[in-house]
Structures are given as C-alpha cells and as structure tokens.
Amino acid sequence: MVFSIIMLVKSYLTWTVLFENSSFKTVWLKELPIILIIFCIIEWFSTKRKLLMYLIVNLLITVLFFTLIVYYRHFGIIPTYHVLEQADQVGAVKKSIFSVIHPKYLLIYMDILILAYVLLRRRIAVGWKRALSARTSRKTVAAVFTISLFACLFNILPHTESINETVQAEQMGILNYEAFSLLDNDEETPVEKELITQSSIYDLKGITESESPVLFGSAKGKNVILVQMESFQNFLIDLKIDGQEITPVMNALAHGNYYFPRFYQQVGQGNTSDAEFVVNTSFYVPPDGPATQIYAKKELPSMARLLESHGYDTATFHTNDVDFWNREDLYQGLGFNRYYDKAFFGEGNDELWFGPSDEVLYDKTAKELQRMDAGPDPFYAHVISMSAHNPFSLPEEKQKMVLPERYEGTYVGDYIQSQNYADYCLGIFLEDLRERGLLEDSLLLFYGDHRGLPVFSLDEEDRVLLEEIFGGTYVEREMINVPFIIAGEGVTTPAEFQQLGGQVDILPTLANLLGLSMKEQIHFGQDLLNQKHYNLLPQRYYLPTGSFVNNEELFLPGSGFEDGKHYTLSGGDSTEASASTEDEFNRALELLHLSDSYVSQLPDRAEQVNGED
C-alpha cells in the first residue's frame, strides 16, 4: 500500500509534465494496475529481501520517470528503450540537458532520501523488515495480479493502432506504453526496392516532373558552399528587438537573393546530424534512432557522390569530434572525399560547447576552401555552424549586442544573443571569402538545421516574450519553420519564393541549378524552382508520426486523422476548418514507408575511407 501510493504520486507528477490532461483519477486508472503487477511479483517471489526489492523497483521507476520528464522537456517526445542506444552521447550534451532541469523535478526523489534516512535507524529498519517478511496470501496476490493484468490489457489493447506516440502514451498510461514499446515487434514489411520508382514517389507527392526546367544549369561548374546554421529559425529574419536588428547578415542575404520563408525542418533523433543526412540524400530520417546509427553503414546515393561523378572535390567541415553522433560513418556513407573535425580546427581553440567557435570554423574553412579552389576541379563544401547551440548561454566576451532588460537571463534572450553572434561570425566568413576571390565562382546555400526554441522547453516568461515577437501564440508551426537561402553572383537576384519547401528539397533544387540530372537517383524532394504549386512534407519524431505540412497548414494527428489538429501556415490557432485531407495523411505515411524501405535495402559499404585532417 505504501509503495503503491508513492508510485501513484510520482506518476501524477510525471503526467503533469508530459500531458495536458492529468487528473488524478485518470492516473490512478492507467498506472496503478501495472504498478500492482510489479508489486505482486515481488510479493510472490521475495521473502527475505522483500524490502530491498521494493526499494530497488521504487528507484528504477523513479529514474525512468525523471528521465522521461527531462527528455520530454528537451526534445518534446516521450522516449522508449530505443534512446538507450544514444546513452553514450549524454556526456557531450550535458549542458543542454541541465538547462531544462527545473529544481522542482528533483522532488520526485524526495521519498528515496526520506526512506534512506529512516532505514538508517536500525530499530525502524528491523521493524519494517519483520512486517514485510509476513507472507501475503497467495490467493490474494493471484487475484490482485489477475485483475491488474486485465486492467492493463484494457488500457493497452484498444490503443495499439494510435499513431501519435504522445497520445498513445496518454491513452495507455506511461508504464504500459513503455512495456508495450519494449514488447511490440510489429514492423512494417518493406516495399520491394524494384517497386520504388521516381514516378511512384512523384505520384504520392502529387507532382509531375518538369519537362523544361527553368534555371537548369544556371550555376553550372560553380563551387558549392552549403552552410548549415545551428538552431536557426525563420522568425529571426528581419527581427528587431527595440529597434536592434538581430541577424543583419542573414537579412541581407535573404533580401538580396533567392529566399524561401515557407521552409521546414525534417530532422529526427539525430538533430544536426539528421539535417546533414536529409539535405545530402533527399531521404527521410528513420523511424527510430538517428540516421547516423541506422543508415550510415549504407552506400548512400548523395549530393557528394552526385557532384563527385561530375568532377567535384567534396569535403565537410564541423568543429565537433567526428565520433559524436557517429559522423565518421555518416560521412563515409555519404561519400565525402574528406572531413574536417575538431582535430583539424584545434582542441581547446576558442571552444564553445562542443568545439571551436564559429569564428575558428569559418576562418580555417575559408583558408582550406582557397586551397581546394586552387585545384583543377570545382569543390562542394558542407559547412556546419555550431556556436548557436543550446543552451545558448554565450560567455560575455562573445556577446555582440545589449539585450533589453526584459530579455536578460531568459531562454529566449539567450537564444537571440547567440544567433546574433552566429550571424556576426557568418558576416566575417562571407567577407573573407570575398577577399579570397571565392564568392564570384561559388553558389552558396544557407538553411537552418532544426528548431532552437522548442515549445515544450519554455517557461511562462519565455512564452510571453515569444507572444510579443509573434503577436500571438508560439506553436509547432513556428518551431519547425527554418529559412532557406540561395546566393550566387550572376545566378540569383532579389526574390522571395512563397512555395512550400523542406530540407529534403535542397538536393534536387541544387542539382537543377548545376545542370545535373536526378533521373537516375531516387529522391523524395522536389526542385523548388520548378515544382512550385504543391508540396507535401511528412514529419516524424519531433512531431508525431503522421504529421505533415502541405501548402496551407501543419497537421498533427491524434489517435488517427479524424481527431488531429490543424494549424494554418498563415498564423492563428488550431482551426476546425481543415485544409488537410485523409488522403494526404495516408500519402505522407506511405512516403515515409517508401523511404525507409528503399534506404534499408541499399547495400552496405564494401570498404571504408578514412577522413583526413
């Protein structure tokens, strides 16, 4: 009874963080049956060490609940056992994790401290052990177990087909959901690779291939510099705080070149590394785990391989250790000729978070690009910025602007400060490229890798500041909106494109500008300069499975399509008037399935190529 009550209280505390509706009655009905099953097993098999077993189970469930709370606050999803595969990454991102841990969450451990103190008093401990040593009636235990088992099945079985993972966890109960995820081995049967054609993908996307594409080959033979901007959301473009321009460099790029404001992230568990994967392959992220773990051993059709087949030298630049998120395998899978990581940029050299600052990144990258440009071939360089990484708390010497007092010490304020610094570093990089004579012969592409301000990590003060910025409620629609800019002297002119786009579209758009055919390379994106009228962008992981963006709105499913939420891209709150259809919902799911099927059936690499400093 005592431990059941303790577990119910902890379950309720966890529900208040994870779910919008968290009545104690609901928690009691969803969580108590599985708790009783666990305790019945202890009562059935343990006698001498029964108290110890209760304490161990209490600790394990408490650690699980605390992990779920912290993970949800950081990533916005309820994790399952799959995230254990990334446990070795925790040390590298501990600052980001600590930034979302509120002291009140530690109260979940309070009973353990109290019990530990009490049990250190020998007389009480002996009394508790003696009381627990009494054998409970096996008939009673069996009856409680049976009733609880039926209650668990009643909570689980009706909801096994719910597509929204968070909704499914709420319907089943947290512990039931975790148990179901562990035991569920029902995987989709892959579509045969031979049946996955570009025309079948276009049919699902609702588009047709352009017979005479505009701007085809307009940047033919130019160097390609692809800059991935860490945590850069689109609302930063033209944002001013009390008259202060936050990102003047990106603003100038957006207004002087091709700018796509209706552009959306499509990353998964791998965050930044997933953005690298999606942009370079035009495939979707896997359903569970980062692409660097699931797909990196494959021989991936990619931007690097396509460009290399047309005479390009290829390299990728990232100031973090190449082992982080298994990037060494990823870069080999993508076919880059070389990678440059922390070993090249310098251990301890002006470090921020995971490696040298963007100032170091851009300085040493520009010098290396000049060396590559001196060779006989054009080059493709993928440059990964990192200084604007969560938790955004820049050291004072890196801060380039003075925030208004109301932004000081807030998550939103720190984010704006860090993006202002990242923009400053980008400006230095562009000027350096110009002085080295690299801009004239290069096509530059800029995009945000993923959201910086998760809706689930904000406190009330942050929400108020974002309402001031947006003039309304900040929701997932704004969270996943990142910019995409194409800039090239003699190629681009000032133009704002309103067609919908996502990270999966960058490769086919670039291929068109370079005059390279994608007909023999399966891809799930579309050329944004030609296929302008319609787009369908499936989402997964950071939005529930079944989520998608179409021309008019962001759709988030409930148990299925019918009880989903609709957010118009033009702004405003969720609306009942749906601009999304169940057909689009099904087609988005099928696109994800086709991508999973195709990539999983690609051959593994026969050999591995070492990166070079």
UniProtKB/TrEMBL annotation:
SUPFAM superfamilies: Alkaline phosphatase-like. Pathway: Cell wall biogenesis; lipoteichoic acid biosynthesis. Pfam families: Sulfatase. One of its GO terms (cellular component) is plasma membrane. Mn(2+) binds at E230, T272, D449, H450. CDD domains: LTA_synthase. Keywords: Cell membrane, Manganese, Membrane, Metal-binding, Transmembrane, Transmembrane helix. The active site is at T272. Substrate binds at H389. It is found in: Cell membrane. GO terms for molecular function: metal ion binding. Residues 222-515 form the Sulfatase N-terminal domain. InterPro entries: Alkaline_phosphatase_core_sf, LtaS-like, OpgB/LTA_synthase_biosynth, Sulfatase_N. The chain crosses the membrane at residues 27-45, 52-72, 103-120, 140-157. It is a multi-pass membrane protein. Belongs to the LTA synthase family. This is Sulfatase. It comes from Paenibacillus agaridevorans. The lineage of its organism: Bacteria, Bacillati, Bacillota, Bacilli, Bacillales.
